[in-house]
Amino acid sequence: MARMKFLCDADRCIECNACVTACKNEHEVPWGINRRRVVTINDGKPGERSISMACMHCTDAPCAAVCPVNCFYTTADGVVLHSKDLCIGCGYCFYACPFGAPQYPKVGNFGSRGKMDKCTFCAGGPEADGSKAEYEKYGANRLTEGKLPLCAEMCSTKSLLAGDGEIIAQIYKERVMKRGYGSGAWGWKTAYRETIES
Amino acid sequence: MLIRRTQRSDSERRGSVATVLSGQSGGLDRRTFLRRSGLAGGALAALSTLPLGSVRKAEAAAAGPLTAGATVRKNICTHCSVGCTVTAEVLNGVWIGQEPTWDSPINRGSHCAKGASVRELVHSERRLRYPMKLVGGQWTRVSWETAINEIGDKLLEVREKSGPDSVYWLGSAKMTNEGAYLFRKLGAFWGTNNTDHQARICHSTTVTGVANTWGYGAMTNSFNDIRNAKTQMIMGGNPAEAHPVSLQHLLEGKELQKANFIVIDPRLTRTAAHATEYVRMRPGTDIPVLYGMMWHILQNGWEDKEFIRQRVYGFDDLRKEVEKWNPEEVERVTGIPGEQLKRVAKMFATEKPSTLIWAMGQTQKTVGTANVRASCILLLMTGNVGGPGMGANIFRGHDNVQGATDVGLDIVTLPFYYGLAEGAWKHWSRVWDVDYEFLKSRFDSKQIMEAPGIPLTRWFDAVTLPKDQVAQKDNVRAVFVQGHASNSITRIPESLNGLKALELLVIADPHPTTWASLAVEVGRKDGLYVLPVATQFECKGSRVASNRSLQWGEQIVKPIFESKDDLEIIYLLAKKFGFADKMFKNIKVENNLPEAEDVLREMNRGSWSTGYCGQSPERLKAHMKNQAKFDMLTMRAPKDDPEVGGDYYGLPWPCWGSPEVRHPGTPLLYNTNLGVMDGGGTFRPRFGIEREEKVADGTTRKVSLLADASYSKDSEIKDGYPEFTLASLKKLGWDKDLTEAELATINKINPATPDAVSWSLDLSGGIQRVALKHGCVPYGNGKARMNAFGLPDPIPVHREPIYTPRVDLVAKYPTLPDAKQFRVPNIGFSVQKAAVEKGIAKQFPLILSSGRLVEYEGGGEETRTNPWLAELQQDMFIEISPADAADRGIKDGGWVWVSGAENNARARMKALVTERVGKGVAWMPFHFGGWLAGKDLRGNYPKGTDPIVLGESANTITTYGYDPATNMQETKVTLCQIVAA
Amino acid sequence: MASLARYIRLGLGTWLLALMITASMPSAAQQVNPTASAVKEQQLLQELNRIQGRVSIPDQRSGVLEQPAGREWREFRNVTLRWVGGIAILGMLVVLVVFYLTRGMVQIQHGRSGRTIVRFGAFERFVHWMTATCFIILAVSGLNITFGRPLLLPLIGHEAFSAWSQWAKYAHNYLSFPFTIGVVLIFLMWLGGNIPNRVDVEWIRRGGGIVGNDHPPAYRFNAGQKAVYWIVVIGGAAVATSGYALMLPFYLSGIEGMQIAAVVHAIVAVLFVAVMLAHIYIGTIGMEGAFEAMGSGVVDVNWAKEHHSLWLEEEEARAAANDARPKPAATAAE
User: Residue B232 belongs to a domain with what CATH number?
Assistant: First the structure.
């Protein structure tokens, strides 16, 4: 059974932010909600690397574990999704998430958080696949259409990979072997408790 | 492999969710969590077989309920010259989604931040909705009819009073070929050469410098072809931000070839972050750096002697200049240690093929033309032109800046580089089917008809200088700008005087732009119109990517609000001026909208000089339809394909002969290893066939400018040869191959001396056809010029920037003397001298450079209005090194005042303290606008059309400085001071 | 509290690394091979256990690329906290039950005198009950966040539980304000009587007289009450501060600060609840005559004599001095 994962090849990422705007475009994500972002380490210094990061859809996801109302679920493809109907906007998933993925719209006064929003691996939410209700709450559901997350599909340098974990790990492994260097499968150890040997 | 939902067993279905939701109540069942476990898939079928793995969609399942029934339309991204195909899903006239275009050999599904967000452009609430004019300082809605009438009347009044040259027609690289061509044609029919566009401030120096070296001033190879290079050297470019999708080819090439990836730049750019060798140089010393490399190459005998002998002219003259640049002098001027430069030179010269990539870093300088010439010379010296993995890969800026340049939206030429001489006018009057005398009558004089116009960099000088200093009947009195930013032009404080003095300013654009906000700021109360123009996603037509490929864009949605297609606006103006019937004689017009296909056909009929003659609309559309058939590396379709067999993608020009000749296009210029009918070619002998040179003993000798024993594959002439004319065909005995009809056309073109009719004037295409038949290139087979006699500096010479911190070097390397260029004076020398004398470098000790951010483009109005992009860069900033910041008590993220060396210019922005820039250097992005000297001008925009993000324009601080050959502006090296605000 | 130690280590590590980087900054940035010197994930994680970079969006917390510490926070929340909270609260309940069963209600040894004395004025009682009410709701809604999912959710189902939790969250957020005000007023109101002194030492030495019929002397507040006071003041300050840090996310700190705030809030809160259980016990069924102090505000003089002998003496002395006529503040009940 496929296990969906993301992998950002930092030696290819150029911080072009295509993944970020592709996500905004596909799901009409509002201003201030960043389901995906690009972080640059050592900015401006030799060795600078950028990494595109969103929800990694962890194995044994910490967000799901700490959620006080248990609103998360993992699909058979390993995608971690949640129900906005159940979410109470407590913010606990953000504290537990190793990747800063959960986002909260600001509603009301003193920073009270609305329902959490995050990357869905373009797989929507609990509503009927491809329904209007699903789109409005979670965005497009590309997986049901046989497509992969748009961020990865549109990545300018094919740095961001999405898909079956075994396949993208293989792709990365081949790349590193071919070119002779690789700064690591960022986040994999934390998210999936595994590294890609190269 | 994913398992489709229907194949899953119930127990699997329960698997993951059941454990999580143990203890759930009945309420949750309705929530349909369980249903979700049956996720569909099948998306990864082809993945594992891909080389170096790109994520790839397999055969998609049927689209979901929300996209069912949508039609798919393809257009080209409007944000840079890479030429990424945009695939749009349209439902009921609404653009509902963007999908990756896997089939495009150029972008292979990819986009950058801008490309991935273009859908927003046609949904924007902040676009101009209807024509407006300023009435007593208030923006007032008017109808299109009123607007065109009033504008037309005023322009005719200016024409009556001051002559046709007093109207400045500023067009755009954002137009399609068809739009840009018609805009130039409009200028010709109006009677002026004051028609310019962004290429002036983009690659005008490249076009001039490179064309003067080997024939055509364009990128020689393609993004894809860079994959073949063993050494990639990027000097004066930051494609990771300016051309992000090109990095797909560059980085994959680097990985596959284990190539050297050298970046020479004052900034450790996002591109440099992926370099195998990064060289930090002082801004404005490109020529010494290149000569420093050449010094090592010649010293060690790494040059390609055979290539130079066969295909290069002027090597000995060059050697004399190079010898001056020993490692000590190079280090003194550029700051680069000799050892590093030697290493770089060795890689470039010996680990071949090598390519040199550049963009604005070389061109936007007072020595821009000389810079690009030096770059070409390095390529020639090492034999790196005319083959895979080689060449001058010149990354153009806008999506159609190459095309708009080609179609002649320029001050120095008619379409397709025919120039402005009488012969050129006569050629185009034949193509346009109008009387030459009529065109002449439209101008003030024959002399001004053949004199280059005023560069857009100088438009406000042409308005405000004393009348006697502007070499035309009168100053510029009206500006009609269709698709050009004002904040991308230097010396903004002085341009304000121009904005104030104009009698009429018309801004035709999807957005009001800084033209409007600044014009209101200087106190204009009237004489200011904004006309809403559609983006190219709302129009159809062809555009040219940097690699010279033409791509046809389909209309995705109808123009939104009251926006109009560029072509329609041009037609409405022509109609108002009363020459529409003449101008559109052979072009179908429906509801005031000229048909783009017909415009392209007219171009095909006249563009023999550049080989735009073979790219009929039908062929271009077939290419878009069959994108998947083109090979990613060679960009060629299999020969047996019925529609596009043997073609190179986008029929990169030159695509010789008429469409029926089926020339495949030329993917790599000057490639002698291919037959000309397979895209091969030679250097173009454009500057005579021989030249008289002085010898040391005082005598002269004649030296051939034709290639020596070098020729393209299968050429029947096994040596250099001049361009083809009827006379030369006769001499070869090939005139017999011409058909009766072709001969008749040739005779009609020049009834007096048909022998003089050349390959570029022959409207029948017969001469080209016959030359091709014999394996020859129509323009001839010449040598590339290291010595480009005729240019201000025939051999490139280092000249310090006008405002340089190294005043000690000015005496030895001064800029060129003052001169009159393009109807206006260029007083760079006086300015440089005064700056040195006044000690400007002491008051303004930091070098200021400028450049691109990936999220924004050009003047930035369009992208700063797009919330998906604007969110990513919300503040104008200046990069400053930690040392300089510490000296000034400036904190990262803190506000600073930046002051410039002229006009007491100052601007308020945030500081970005970073080692990206070296000590003594500061850098600003140039996309911001809408602030002036700390003041927010948001209120000056027509209500609801202000961009989301506003900020100070970099060009508030930039200063005087113009390249003598093109009047390119200086945006990359000036001086500034920064203080904490 | 392994997590807390971890955060301290983390802070130290960051500081040290920053120092190292500054010291080893390459002076000549010219001869570099950026590809070869690329940062590596594992190396960064080993150095800091957190990877931070630059983002251009204003949301600076998104500059934290990875913080595997989230896994440890999760461990704290799902395991440590539940143990600590469970033991503290259940343990306290067990202790109280056992105590009640063995000791029973502490009676007024000499029976009621019939004479009463004012112990708490109306304002004092108002503040107490306002704070107390808020506390109970905050406690219940807070405990729901920690224990609701395993205990309550299976009983009432997802929808009902989420709806209840949503309201509980609102209540928790909004009632924090009166609670905080209450704590501040309590602090100011009763500060005078709650400065520890020598009498407390004796009181503590004698175990507060809780065993047997001992009645160590005490002023208005005995050492036990002082302990409650200070627990309320300090604990209240801690939960309020950490709570507001959580309520106004990232205004004051980054993700590690938020995690520490959540840890502090949770630990203090469960201990607070445990202590308050004891307080409630002693103020109600644990001791005869105690509830009246906060109920009607007056207590029996004999109760006062037994539990707050020194206070009673002070009050009576003051009454005598203030009023020549024999009309003390404490009047005889008819």
Answer: 3.40.228.10
